[in-house]
Queue: 2 jobs
Job 1
Amino acid sequence: MSGAVTIGLSAVVAAIRDGEAVVLVVRPQTGEGLRETDSTGLPSGPFDPDHDRTFELALRDFVTQQTGFELGYVEQLYTFGDKGRDAPLADLGGVAPGAGRIISVGYLALAPGALPLPDRTASEGAQWTPWTHFFPWEDWRDGRPDVIDDVIAPACIEWARAHDPADSEQRLTRARALFALDGARWNEERVLERYELLYETGLAAEAARDRTRTQGLQPKGGLKIDARLGQPMSSDHRRILATGLGRLRGKMKYRPVAFELMPPKFTLSALQRTVEAISGVALHKQNFRRVIERTELVEGLGVLDSDTGGRPAELFRFRRELLATRQATGLTLPMLRES
Amino acid sequence: MSGAVTIGLSAVVAAIRDGEAVVLVVRPQTGEGLRETDSTGLPSGPFDPDHDRTFELALRDFVTQQTGFELGYVEQLYTFGDKGRDAPLADLGGVAPGAGRIISVGYLALAPGALPLPDRTASEGAQWTPWTHFFPWEDWRDGRPDVIDDVIAPACIEWARAHDPADSEQRLTRARALFALDGARWNEERVLERYELLYETGLAAEAARDRTRTQGLQPKGGLKIDARLGQPMSSDHRRILATGLGRLRGKMKYRPVAFELMPPKFTLSALQRTVEAISGVALHKQNFRRVIERTELVEGLGVLDSDTGGRPAELFRFRRELLATRQATGLTLPMLRES
DNA sequence: TCAAAAGTGTTATCCTTACACCCATGT
DNA sequence: ACATGGGTGTAAGGATAACACTTTTGA
């Protein structure tokens, strides 16, 4: 007969704070076997087949419990079921170790605009963290991040070399395409593939952790974590986070999801900063405005906001009523820098 | 404590046969409690947490077992976990009824070209079926299908009217947008939403079946199934199929997945027929060829195929090597008919 | 010779990109 | 006055959509 299965639900809750893309993370339950690399994770919890009617309802409930925050837009990301590969262990709240195979269902949630801070009462260790902390190499808004050429590229080359020539060439090609080496173009959507590559090369701290765990080894003291390679997360949460960021970057282009991150009224510059913070690339101001115009997704309110520094900007609102009628389109990204 | 969970895996295996889009379906194990509406389903089976290392490996195995067919391209679609709502019952091979909550993980698989018929030895009731059988309203290649105005639209209007005015208006708007009523444009990607609407209105035969099951009622004899509303499937399989068709229609536009359905050598017309069969719309021949040229995804072989009826056509091949390098784009659809 | 399907050419229109420039406010 | 950010105009190049037309085979 078949063994036990536990379903774990995890949420990537994204928002914009001061023009920066932030994500909701929790510190694990303080207690016994706490490890260094378990420092933070996504809000997550077990799915109770007896009481929870749907995944989504269960998810909304425990995110509110863990963070004191109510979710708006929610969509399913992916279901991870691999054995061994950064599998969640005993770090699901309320699930005893040895509960059998754990399946992980990831969700993406978007929180509108100038978000209320999670109220400290309900939230133990919940806090908003910029996701550049977890993926520093994904932020190209100020040009190509140094960490790519300084750390990632050399490590990838070494990793590729350590294999027979045929494999080696394939690995190099893959690294070049993903990290825009040797003149290849940066494709901002391939967040997950890049993280997976870093995991394979061992640059992602979780790789070493999973190896020691599955092989029953103890980590020998100081695992040196290079801050430039991002902060690791517990279990497979950084993988889910990468899936969420990639999905969001792609989806923004063909669905009007960017507006789910905005407050009811916003300036076009604020919208642009949001799109830039999510996509991680700098956009061309004038053309961005034209794109917005063309889509007709937005309506000027004739009201000005003078808190912007220079000339006051007009406030706009998202014409949410369009969602029902036409399958509204997304926003193309008029890039600024080419290389 | 939490109850038992069983993971069911289901595969939408798509292919092209004689220019028609077909999908692999199986007849359920002949045996005891067989019902009318359980006539066919997707290849599916339980996930064994003790033996299966990943979902995908498990899936490949039992599809081969059930159909004698080996999968190529595979991607995960969605994980369904709703209680009550067309939940799979005892129709998962090898799972006893009452095994607790069943979670359903859907996959999409693509089979290349002129596919080998599944060999009858291994396959009990496996067969390729055009997916227009399951979604007749999705085929707009010869213009707007009559069933929409004859059957679906009236039923949707009645369904909308049966509620208070505010709700009623929303429902009408939704139906209009999804089924291109009152001059709204047809959006071929929204397959799942349309099926869900038909389920809600009761036009999908599965709705009545699920109601009688969850309420413990017996179906009273002849449930009249209108063939123009498509053949129903067991458990939630038509929902998964709708998810798969929608995903494929969308993905074709931004990833070169259409070629996964083609044999190694093909004519441009065959490629166009494939794209049309999947997307369900007629395309403009000359402009389609221009689109193909522009993408440079394809390479002429200088060889002619004279089995085409008229003038022999040049054979082309997909430049698969591009997949490693650039994140190759998909195919835009140069529509033929506007209305 | 004719039907059927393959394949070529041309044009108007729209979208994207890039560049230059003006406007309104606070300090 | 000038720095700061908001907002407008315009022109080149490329992609799309809609035409009409020629070519090569089999029956």
Note: The interface with chain B takes residues 2-7, 46-50, 52-55, 76, 78-79, 81-84, 100-101, 103, 105, 170, 173-174, 176-177, 184-185, 187, 189-190, 324-327 of chain A (CB under 8 Å).
Job 2
Amino acid sequence: MTLAYSPDTAAAPAIVELMDRVGLKMTFAKGEEIFGQDEDADMIHSLVSGVVRTTRLLSDGRRQVGDFYYPGDVIGLEIGDAYRFSAEALTDCVIRVVKRSSLAALSGKDNLDRALWEATRRELERTQEHLLMLGRKSACEKVASFLRDVAQRDGSDEVSLPMGRQDMADYLGLTIETVSRMVTQLQGSQIVEFATSRLFRVTRWPALERLAA
Amino acid sequence: MTLAYSPDTAAAPAIVELMDRVGLKMTFAKGEEIFGQDEDADMIHSLVSGVVRTTRLLSDGRRQVGDFYYPGDVIGLEIGDAYRFSAEALTDCVIRVVKRSSLAALSGKDNLDRALWEATRRELERTQEHLLMLGRKSACEKVASFLRDVAQRDGSDEVSLPMGRQDMADYLGLTIETVSRMVTQLQGSQIVEFATSRLFRVTRWPALERLAA
DNA sequence: CGCTGGATTGAGTCCGGTCAAGCCTTGTGG
DNA sequence: CCACAAGGCTTGACCGGACTCAATCCAGCG
């Protein structure tokens, strides 16, 4: 899969650049775990290619998807001593990894500290947007916003959904059945058109924007 | 109102200390707006005393409360060019304020950059916790978690709720009526006991913890 | 081909929202 | 000190949107 570089969601270039230079290159196969919830958090990851999902589990099995990450995004900023989410590769991925301690050693250079702050701030903004959606939007609005966001990130005309319905549901705080029904409904209203369950195009942008509220 | 200092939620001391030194001291009366949504964001605020609420409005009037801030917390870190939330004083407040540009001038000194990063990271963690709750918890679990969190922050035996039911509802993604019903229900189960609608004590901590999940 | 796992669809239920009274606290003015 | 008004909170009856459970469909793949 080839994705457009998305400047408004990507982390500050300084970090990505640095990690390209000093980071260890790693690859993960589709479905593989990149790090696990509650593991010691000593790495920061920069996504070169592929799509990654972060998830958090409650004790009784309920699951919340934190976010989906695309090439250019930095993963692992939100972390204290232990990872609070686990991260899995939704597709085959290439990732640059550096130790936190190595970053600390570079502190002060290249405005790195400021860049890390900026990137974390942006992550925070994304999370706040997510929060607003979970708290105050209807099922239909949630699915509409989601499809809009994915379509915007993808950039291409034929938008591919790297995640399944269960992942969408756990991201939106819905069940898989409700997501499916809303998708069907949006298709019925001629707003989107699904070629397969993982591939669609937006047929009426203004209507989609309006529904996303 | 006197509140215990809460070290696990307070921002890195370095910032608070700095702001005590160079920040302009301001006071706000109960109900006053500290800054407004979409205003230019050029200030960072450190809360000395009182309680502050941040809110975000959707176009159709739906409201989401971002968070409640207590003494020792730093407000305004999440911000890009414009404030994405508005902040209001829930009680009379004393706040230290510094310009972002002044902070920038001090960049590099006192590990300030690192401290700002740390504080933002902590804010992100709080937001992620909030997210998990909105997405995957039932009304009863939401109210239970909320009362637990407030009680923990307050520290005292007689816990005071500086916010009204509407604020709780908008924080939890519920209606005022549902919040009220859940409170009544928790009281009926002998888990909490309300002296007035704004003052309660926890009678059975383990049960409250269990419900908060 | 048939198997397998994800996605869709349908029927029925329930949790939380809506609408509408009523209650209690607080504050104000006679 | 009481009467009254006003706003916030609670309670009740009802409704509807999202969940649950279950059947079916469909695409990918051996």
Note: Residues 138-139, 174-175, 177-178, 181, 196-197 of chain A lie near DNA strand D (CB under 10 Å from a C1').
